[in-house]
Amino acid sequence: MRRLMRHPAGPAAAVLVAALIVLAVVAPPLLGEQAAAIHPDRINQGAGAAHWLGTDALGRDLLARTLVATRLTLGLAFLATLIGTVGGVLLGALPSLLPRRTGRLVVAAVDLLVAFPALLLAMFTAVVTGLGARGAVLGIGVALAPAFARLTHTLTASVAGADYIAAARMLGVPPHRVLARHLLPNIAEPLILNTAQAMGSSLLGLSAMSFLGMGVQAPSYDWGRLLNEAFGHVYVTPAVVVAPALAVALAGLAFMLLGDAFAKAAAGADQPAGAPVTPVVEPAGDAPDPDAVLDVRDLTVAFPGGTTPVRAVSLTVRTGEIVGLVGESGSGKSMTAAAIGQIVPYPGIVAAARTALCGTELTALGPAERRALLGSSLAMVFQDPTASLNPALRVGGQLTEVATLHDGASPAEARARAVERLGRVHIKDPAAVVRQYPHELSGGMRQRAVIAMGLMGTPRLIIADEPTTALDVTVQREVLRVLREVVDSTGAGALFISHDIAVVSDVCDRVAVMYAGRVVEELPADALRRARHPYTRALIGSLPDMDTDRALPLATIPGRQPSPADIGEGCAFADRCTLAGDRCSAPPPLTARTAGHHVACWEA
Description:
Blueprint: H1 2-6, H2 10-36, H3 62-97, H4 100-115, H5 118-129, H6 133-160, H7 163-170, H8 175-211, H9 223-230, H10 242-266, E1 292-303, E2 307-318, E3 322-326, H11 333-340, E4 349-351, E5 354-357, E6 360-361, H12 367-377, E7 378-381, H13 385-388, H14 395-406, H15 411-424, H16 430-433, H17 443-454, E8 461-465, H18 473-490, E9 493-498, H19 501-507, E10 510-515, E11 518-524, H20 534-541, E12 591-594, E13 597-599
Parallel strand pairs: 3-9, 3-10, 7-8, 8-9
Antiparallel strand pairs: 1-2, 1-4, 1-5, 5-6, 10-11, 11-13, 12-13
Helix pairs in contact: 2-3, 2-10, 3-4, 3-6, 3-8, 4-6, 5-6, 6-8, 7-8, 8-9, 8-10, 9-10, 14-15, 14-17, 15-17, 17-18
């Protein structure tokens, strides 16, 4: 509810909908007699002191009739929305219950119904079922169902491939139980959000049906019926259409805005409720490193509810250098990369004393200048190349986009550059690969294609976020060799993110170890065996080597890393550390112990 109230349209929509519900409850008993009273001497009067919005052809007060009609209008709209929602969800879920061929026929039928104009479908259904309120409700419900069916089918298809669905089917759970217990609960939120907007659509549709004479019939009346009765006198007394027309417009707008506000509020539903934590950082006092392609000081990322996954992280990446960022899953490595690349998801808040790329402070640039610098000087290589490449586009088309957008290259020049860059990352027959789709490439080729995409510009910094995690050992070594060659040949710097300290020690020049959102140790890669922080030593100790006694269990780190929302003020590793003492209740600063070796530990 708080998120809904923070949306600009949320409070106004909520107030309007609440007012409509109150009117629907109290208006008929309070104003019912006044709305039904016939006054032959006041027929078709304009607005006046006795009747603020005039009277109809029988002298009845139009304002009172409009207020009383709120109950029937909202009630019919609710029934139509219920029919459309339930019918659409069941229709959209059918393909997951039926055999594949029959399910495709249902999907084709839904696509055909979606293409048919909704109001014409509603009118056709009303004619078949009979004119009146019942026919109009059924017509609008049938008209709403295809859109809900399409939405349900799309959402169901997106969830159907999840591992827990496959596990349920493997266990022999009947299809209807898979649908009821596993599929529908996981897609309920967008369906509920869409229902609020569907309420507004059904209200407008029912009013249109009644206005055309196909909906509510006399002596009953809703807002559309009142418009129908008043339309013949609009040129004589225009005020007679004001009340019902305004009611239809405001009610439809209220439900539409409420649905939109719910959808926007749901965008932050994954974050815990509470006020956002605004990171506070002091300006960087030290001078920027002139050789650094990336210079970050006190980088902090916070989310509403007190969740802070990155806490005062400082990193420097110099020309021709690969810096490894290593730590357990959840330590804040990927969020650090997202903050550097300016892609932290909403509603995250990023603050830093300095975020300099190629000597330029990013926060000092305007949006267009920042996009241009990031697009040309920063290359991001993500963990899953399948998700990084658009399956509907050829590889060449995706690579050339960088050159045409940021460098103004012609299509022929961009294509030639794409072939050259693919060859640089050791892809065989690059001229053929640019014509292929991502699914035609192996995992290693896709990862190298993503690296080539980053090289389409002139990147000074390459951020590789666990680029070898999903690859086998042989392909992993090839990709790491390509990354090393690219850095050496272009002079770019690289930030290599991984949870595998063995891989980091093999490819990187320097290593920064992260734990619970902080850098706890930074040292040269060839000095890892001389690490001083207990966490770094534990990571190294958990790596088996040729001298490891296979009769003994592998070394592990007891306990678990705290979540970003549960990190206290002291050393986050204290609960798992054998050296923890009284001083560990205060956060240890990252201090220099030897040249190039910094440690954040009171006891090390």
